[in-house]
Each structure stands twice: as structure tokens, then as C-alpha cells.
Design brief:
The complex is a heterodimer of chains A (115) and B (115).
Chain A: E1 4-5, E2 10-14, E3 19-25, E4 32-38, E5 45-51, E6 56-58, E7 62-67, E8 72-77, E9 86-93, E10 103-105, E11 109-114
Parallel strand pairs in A: 2-11
Antiparallel strand pairs in A: 1-3, 3-8, 4-5, 4-9, 6-7, 7-8, 9-10, 9-11
Chain B: E1 4-7, E2 10-13, E3 19-25, E4 31-37, E5 43-51, E6 54-57, E7 64-66, E8 76-78, E9 87-94, E10 105-106, E11 110-114
Parallel strand pairs in B: 2-11
Antiparallel strand pairs in B: 1-3, 3-8, 4-5, 4-9, 5-6, 7-8, 9-10, 9-11
Classes of the chains: A mainly beta (115), B mainly beta (115).
């Protein structure tokens, strides 16, 4: 099965609330993690990434947290908007130091925004 | 820049037919890759390339061939299509070649049905 998994396949939040999407990974040696957003009928779109030497990274309305102790990754979206409705994927570079990166993706979480 | 361009967007094949999915990028990226996306399974890596003339297998390479004669193009060939290859296929590219962690830029996908 996938080494990168998600705790919840679906998440519904009220517009304006903060969203938190969680992800677990299995390889403690993974050194790079990335979040993608995929809207219906489109390809995945980059949101934010983080390297294993960091615990937190912030972007515009998004924050990624990395907890290497429990091998957990989360994506926080502030003040969720209708346009945030999509499927969110986390991915890890599962084979660091073994040549070019090979990102392994989780199954995805569908985020639905309620008006 | 057009980014990553995939053609065709939709394709229906009969079992045993062959076809080539085209992928081109105009960002001078060294790394290119092919993923397939099946419901509930995220994206799985088929083949990747770290530069012209160099290709390697990903997680699910069986039934697919690739070549990289130029930096810009990375076609995916199905020599004898099978119903199990019904999926959505995504091409992706990034700046890095060997041993780098870089975000991937994805195309809009090819939806393939094999009857």
C-alpha cells in the first residue's frame, strides 16, 4: 500500500474557518515533503513544500507543519474560501540519496467548503 | 510559457491497441515523469527521466515504455493496451535532475479508457 496516508478521506469546513489536513508517512529517512491541490478535471497544483531540516513553513494563507518524531505532516489553510474546495495530496521523497527524487503520493483528502 | 502540455486529453482504445501519450514542457526542465491516477489510490509513478537519453522505472512500469530524445519531450507508449491501464495519466517536470528535491509541475492529464 501507500507509504503516505491520510487520516481523513473527506473534510467539510465552514467558509472562513481554518482547515487542517493531516498526512502520515512511514519512512523516517524521507527528506522532502510537498502538498498539492487538485481541482476536478485538472492536474495537481503545487501549494507548498518543506524539507526535513525544517519544522514549519508558511506561504500565503497556508502553513505546513512537519513532526518527524511521529512522522506526521499537516497542511493548514487559513480563512478557508470556496475556491479552496479540492482534493489535497501530500507526497514524500521516499528514497533520498538514491538518485533522482521519486515522489510517493497519498490517496488524497477531499476538502468541501460549506457557505 | 505553456508549462507542461499533454495530448490527447481523452482517448479510448480497444484491448491490444497501441498508442503514445505525448508530453512536452517549455521550461527547460531536466526532470520529467509520468504518473497514473486511479480512484482512491493517489498518483503512482510509472517512469521518469533525469535528462535527455536517461530514463528509469518508477513504481508501476509494466506495460509502458518511455524515451527521452530531447529535453522538451517525454512520450509514454502503451504497446498493447489492457483494461487495467484505464486511468488518468499525468506528466510532470521539475528543474532538478539527479539527487535534488524540487517541486513538480503537472500537465492537465490524459484520460484513457481501454475497452
Amino acid at each position: 500500500g501507500e507509504s503516505v496516508g491520510l487520516h481523513l478521506p473527506t473534510l467539510s469546513v465552514q467558509e472562513g474557518d481554518n482547515s487542517i489536513i493531516n498526512c502520515a508517512y512511514s519512512n523516517s529517512a524521507s527528506d522532502y515533503f510537498i502538498w498539492y491541490k487538485q481541482e476536478s478535471g485538472k492536474g495537481p497544483q503545487f501549494i507548498i513544500d518543506i524539507r526535513s531540516n525544517m519544522d514549519k513553513r508558511q506561504g500565503q494563507r497556508v502553513t505546513v507543519l512537519l513532526n518527524k518524531t511521529v512522522k506526521h505532516l499537516s497542511l493548514q489553510i487559513a480563512a478557508t474560501q470556496p475556491g479552496d474546495s479540492a482534493v489535497y495530496f501530500c507526497a514524500e521523497n521516499k528514497f533520498p540519496g538514491q538518485g533522482a527524487q521519486k515522489l510517493v503520493f497519498g490517496q488524497g483528502t477531499r476538502l468541501t467548503i460549506n457557505p | 510559457n505553456a508549462g507542461v502540455t499533454q495530448t490527447p486529453k481523452f482517448q479510448v482504445l480497444k484491448t491490444g491497441q497501441s498508442m503514445t501519450l505525448q508530453c512536452a514542457q517549455d521550461m527547460n526542465h531536466e526532470y520529467m515523469s509520468w504518473y497514473r491516477q486511479d480512484p482512491g489510490m493517489g498518483l503512482r509513478l510509472i517512469h521518469y527521466s533525469v535528462g535527455a537519453g536517461i530514463t528509469d522505472q518508477g513504481e508501476v512500469p509494466n506495460g509502458y515504455n518511455v524515451s527521452r530524445s530531447t529535453t522538451e519531450d517525454f512520450p509514454l507508449r502503451l504497446l498493447s493496451a489492457a483494461p487495467s491501464q484505464t486511468s488518468v495519466y499525468f506528466c510532470a517536470s521539475s528543474y532538478g535532475g539527479q539527487v535534488t528535491n524540487e517541486k513538480l509541475f503537472f500537465g492537465s492529464g490524459t484520460q484513457l479508457s481501454v475497452l
